[in-house]
Here is the input.
Amino acid sequence: MKRRNFFLTAFITAMFGMAQAAVPGEIPNSNQNIDPMSDKAFNARRGATILNNNVFAKSEVGIDPKSVERVKKEIKLPLVIRDINDQHDSLVVNQYPFTINGVEYDYVVQIELKDFKNIHLASLEDLKEKRFPDLKDPYVFMINRNFITHDAASYKLDENFVYDMQVVSSADFESLQGLPPFSIIRLFTKTQENGAVEN
Here is the structure.
């Protein structure tokens, strides 16, 4: 298992290791034509995204921007963050920084959606099981152009905002021949570029 993880890490680092600084309090749109950040910066962001009723989503990447009513960046503490894991546990946040699922956060961004009751939140693993139930470990996830390098279990996406999912095998890469096999699960959200969103 350690050997597999080493090869996965080496592959991702070698191909997608550009670094940029994450800006606290900024909500970058990872669904736009040219993503504004590298994989390293995407995964290093220090803000926790919550939705209506303080439901934890980790990131805005799986939320349709057109479904957003308002964004609040200055959150008063204490704060109860709900559904932080698949057991639907809650966390009371009394001060910054705080930790959810082993990841430390410096601030919270609250995204209030217009019609939250019709949002169908799903984890990456839920989406994988629906679309590729027979796919076995090991695999890594990508959302749009970004690899998810850690804490993949915390991401929640609106199923209605998912445009497509694909699997790419490491066997398809000439440079990886002879290494232990793994899969890349690519998830694409709806954008103007893929024709799923009107101008």
